[in-house]
Each structure stands twice: as C-alpha cells, then as structure tokens.
Design goal:
Layout: H1 13-18, E1 22-26, H2 30-36, E2 40-42, H3 45-52, H4 58-67, H5 75-95, E3 102-105, H6 114-130, E4 138-143, H7 146-157, E5 162-167, H8 170-178, E6 183-186, H9 188-198, H10 210-224, E7 230-233, H11 239-244, E8 250-253, H12 255-262, H13 287-296, H14 298-325
Parallel strand pairs: 1-2, 1-8, 2-3, 3-4, 4-5, 5-6, 6-7, 7-8
Helix pairs in contact: 3-14, 4-5, 5-14, 6-7, 8-10, 9-10
C-alpha cells in the first residue's frame, strides 16, 4: 500500500499573524523575549521597574550602578544617571536577542519640555553606543504631547528614530505623521478601558471595540495620504483585539497574549491592508488645532494625562529603589 502522508500541522494564530504584521514583544523580561522570538521589543518605565525587581537581573542593576559617573555628576543626578543606565542595560540585552529594534522611553516627567526631551534622547543613544548598540537599532519612546511631537521632529532630522507613545486621539496620530515620526503606538486596551468606565451598560466585542476602531481609522488615514509613519497597535486586553487588527504594520503584544495566540490553531484572516487608494493631502495641524482637538476629546485628554502620571510614578519608584542600593 502506498504510504499515507502525515497531515500538515495547523499553524498557530501567532505564526499566521507574523505573515502579515511585524510582531513586537511588549516586555522587559529578557527570558520571555528569548522564548517568543519577536522581531522587535518595546519597553516602558513600568516594564523596566517590574523587570528590575526580578532576582535574575540583579547583576544588571549592579553593573549600571558601577558604571555611573559619580565623579562628574552632582549627587542629585547620580540616581538619574543610574536609572538611565538600567534602562539602557535592559535595552542592550534585549537588542542582542531580537533582530530588529528596541524601544526605550524618555522620562515621562519631561513630556512637556521639548529641549529636555531632545537632550535625554541624545543621552540614551550615547549610552547605547557605549554598549555597542547603534542608533539604527533603537526607537526613542516619547509621550505624544505637542512638545513631545516637536522633540521627535527634531530628533528624526538628526537620524534618531522615534516611537511616539500614549496615542489615544486621532489628532496625536495625525500630528506625529505630519512631523515625520518613524512610528506611533496607539493604545488599544486603554481606550477600551475608558469607554467601559464611561458606558457601564455597553458590552464591547472586537467588532465594536473603540480602541480597535481608533487604530483602524489611523491606519487607513495614513495609508490613504501616503504617510510613511508606522502604525503599531499596543496595550491589548485580549486576543480578539489583536485578531481585529491583523495586517496592521506592527503590533506590540505582551508575552501572555503571545502565548495564547501560539496555542490557538484557528484561522487568522487579514483585516487591514493598504489598498493603494489615495486621498488629497490636508494642511498640517497647527498647535492651536491640535490643542483644540485634544480638548474636545475627553478620552484622549484624560488617558494621556493618566499615562504620563503612571509612567512618571514608576520612574520615581525605580529611582527610589536604586537610591537605596547606591
């Protein structure tokens, strides 16, 4: 009897997603990155704080403390320098485990200071260079305030690519694209969180998820007007949101949700695609336009402020932890 061919194993939803979207790991846990093999990785102060408290990374913390330039810095700046080196230390290790880019965040407490954001970004790039990681392997994460967008515009012209984060409103996304920003991170799950709190009687699914709708609108607007800015959906609450954005340029996903997708053998069809249709360009947003549109969008205004406060608080907690160790 002729041999019967073995059935082809079903491909996981994660593998299917990778066929159409660049999958990015949303974690500071190096072990998780080694296990999941993402193309890129993105961190933030909350993730760095969590990772810094894991015993397996104690050596990384001590190395950052040892590298601090205590002789050249006032005592008040030593802790800040160590915190920068901790973030860069994690980022450098991650860069050795992914083929693409690593996103590292500028201190959220600088979100309304364009000049200070530019200087901090340059400092981060210089610290990475000391560890052998070139600027082209990095994305500098900056909160998408008006001041942050202007800082990113300057940095992009210097060849320092940026990831504008805490995107909740369409005005933020559009202003970033008009400024020539490399990549934006719209926060799907946090948008959903706000709408759930504001509308407790409404049941949200992937089909009516306002975070999914926001990223879909941004993606289509960017493609229709020929913007090169990469759209990277972030902050997912469930795999349904991820499935609803299959085909987006990039998606940054937590290890837990990546594991769920890896265990799912169901079909994952493409949802978003650049059809090639183009629309007429619009005049760029002015500062007054931007601020008015943000003011009119309660969700975007509230979630942006909340996100900046949360990241700033976690940066302060990390510095407090490091101060006790120095």
């Amino acid at each position: 009897m002729p041999a019967v061919a073995a059935p082809t194993p079903a491909r996981s939803a994660l593998d299917q997603l990778r066929d159409m979207t660049v999958v990015v790991a949303d974690t500071g846990d190096i072990a998780a990155i080694e296990r999941l093999h993402p193309i890129d990785a993105t961190t933030n102060p909350s993730l760095i704080l969590k990772a810094a408290q894991m015993p397996e990374y104690a050596g990384l913390i001590q190395a950052a403390i040892a590298r601090a330039d205590r002789a050249a810095l006032p005592d008040a700046q030593v802790v800040t320098d160590v915190a920068d080196r901790v973030a860069v230390g994690f980022g450098a290790k991650i860069a050795g485990r992914v083929p693409g880019r690593v996103s590292v965040e500028v201190d959220a407490r600088l979100s309304f200071d364009t000049g200070a954001t530019v200087e901090k970004a340059r400092r981060i790039v210089a610290l990475f260079a000391e560890q052998g990681v070139p600027a082209e392997r990095l994305l500098i994460k900056i909160a998408a305030t008006w001041e942050g967008i202007r800082a990113a515009e300057r940095l992009e012209k210097e060849g320092i690519n940026c990831n504008l984060t805490l995107i909740f409103g369409f005005a933020q996304a559009r202003a970033c694209a008009e400024a020539g920003v490399f990549l934006i991170s719209p926060f799907v799950g946090r948008i959903l969180d706000w709408h759930r709190a504001a509308n407790p009687g409404v049941t949200y699914t992937a089909e009516n998820d306002p975070g999914v709708a926001s990223v879909t609108a941004i993606y289509r607007y960017f493609k229709a007007r020929g913007f090169g800015t990469v759209v990277m959906g972030a902050s997912f609450r469930n795999t349904g949101e991820i499935r609803a954005l299959a085909g987006c340029d990039r998606l940054t996903i937590s290890p837990a949700l990546m594991d769920e997708l890896a265990a799912d053998a169901g079909a994952l069809p493409r949802v978003l695609e650049d059809t090639g249709a183009r629309a007429a360009p619009e005049a760029p947003l002015t500062e007054a336009d931007f601020r008015w549109r943000m003011n009119a969008d309660a969700m975007a205004t509230e979630k942006l402020a909340e996100g900046i406060r949360a990241f700033a608080a976690d940066s302060a907690r990390l510095e407090s932890m490091l101060a006790d160790m120095i």
